[in-house]
Design a protein that fits this description.
Distance between the termini: 8 Å
Helix content: 40-55%
Structural class: alpha/beta
Mean pLDDT: 97
Largest sheet: 8 strands, parallel, barrel
Radius of gyration: 20 Å
Low-confidence stretches: none
Number of strands: 15
Number of helices: 13
Length: 391
């Protein structure tokens, strides 16, 4: 979906296909047929943006076979789909029964991460619509905090990898005329947990093609104020490459037994749901939601937020809610001003099948309806901010 900003620029809205796990190219094609095109039809649009997730095996197939890449581009066109952004955070196995800490490997200290991201950049340059010259890729925020934190050699290795990537992106732009940018995506528990944590490593790299991806669920989980966070990035000269529109789980009164019970229903074995609370002494947290609800791992006199991407249009029932207000405030700062701070927006609710059983979609139709409802909400927010939806 495309929108015209009052300044005349085009803002893209997509939804991320990591909600439909696929490790192979055949699986990606099935996603386009069984999920992406049906969502487009529900929205009544001739064209729908998707934030494509290409696992390692699918990406390597496309890199090694130009005919397959041309066929994928043709299929996107024929199904009314377009790609200006990729989710490069998960490397492989995102559809496994247990993902948890595995999603952070390989990290930016490992050669495979640089090689995979380089592949993704080359593929995105080929998949961009004919009238688009800019693409973006989100990636993990360097590494999980252990054993990275405090390891100066690891930090130097990661910085060197990002510098090499920036040089490769420069060369790609020169060869193709397509500008691809990479955004580190701060996430609770990682060495870059907050937007503030991202400033130092990104200014160290000091290249316009390496910036930040602001995920509004992660921003909210870490209790960051959107205005403060985005102003600090601007002051430091850090470019906002893209933003993922998502909402976290919020519990206002975690000391109440009924709140703990409601939270426990969202603790599940597949994904990591880092949980945080903001206290007078600073941010406190656990690596997973079950650790928080099981005992006294977190102070419970202040609200809790959990890294669980709840559907934008369907907040959980009381006594829980979502951090949709943080998304609204962030979006207003991103695109509500005289010029957009980023032109690539992506709804990323990959946890539909991790919801409590009674809330999960049971059929493809129900899932497509839910994704379409999320995109409709995002579209309405953009229109309310003065953007005009384009055909």
């Amino acid at each position: 979906m495309r929108f015209r900003h009052p300044d005349g620029s085009t803002v893209h809205l997509a939804y991320c296909t990591n909600v439909h796990p696929a490790e192979t190219l055949d699986g990606v094609r099935a996603q386009l047929r069984d999920h992406c095109e049906p969502v487009r039809r529900r929205l009544g649009r001739d064209r729908l943006g998707i934030g494509l997730w290409l696992a390692r095996d699918a990406a390597r197939t496309l890199i090694n076979d130009p005919a397959e890449l041309r066929a994928l581009r043709s299929e996107l066109d024929s199904r009314g789909l377009e790609v200006v952004t990729l989710n490069g955070f998960p490397y492989e196995g995102f559809g496994a029964d247990e993902v948890k800490y595995r999603v952070y490997r390989p990290d930016w200290t490992e050669p495979d991460r640089l090689a995979h991201t380089t592949d993704l950049a080359r593929l995105l340059a080929a998949l961009l619509p004919d009238d688009a010259t800019e693409g973006t890729i989100s990636t993990l925020p360097l590494a999980w905090r252990t054993p990275y934190d405090g390891d100066h050699e690891a930090a130097r290795t990661a910085r060197s990898a990002l510098t090499t990537l920036a040089q490769r992106l420069d060369a790609l732009a020169e060869m193709t005329g397509k500008s691809i940018r990479i955004g580190l995506e701060p996430e609770p528990g990682c060495t870059v947990e907050t937007t503030a944590d991202a400033i130092a490593p990104l200014t160290d790299v000091g290249h316009d093609r390496i910036g930040i991806c602001v995920d509004t669920c992660h921003l909210a989980t870490s209790f960051e104020d959107p205005a403060t966070a985005l102003d600090a990035l601007a002051a430091a000269g850090v470019r906002i490459v893209k933003s993922q529109l998502s909402a976290a789980l919020h519990a206002e009164d975690p000391h109440l037994p009924e709140v703990r019970t409601a939270l426990a229903a969202f603790a599940e074995p597949r994904f990591l749901h880092q949980t945080r609370t903001s206290t007078a002494a600073g941010l406190r947290g656990t690596d997973d939601l079950d650790e928080a609800v099981a005992g006294r791992a977190l102070p419970d006199s202040t609200p809790w937020r959990a890294h669980f991407h709840v559907p934008l249009h369907a907040p959980p029932a009381p006594p829980l809610t979502s951090t949709l207000p943080v998304l609204r405030d962030t979006l207003a700062r991103l695109v509500g001003g005289p010029a957009p701070l980023t032109r690539h927006l992506e709804v990323e609710t990959y946890t539909w099948q991790a919801l409590p059983a009674e809330l999960r979609p049971r059929t493809r139709t129900q899932l497509a309806d839910g994704i379409a409802a999320e995109l409709t909400l995002a579209r309405d927010l953009l229109v309310d901010l003065g953007l005009k939806e384009l055909p």
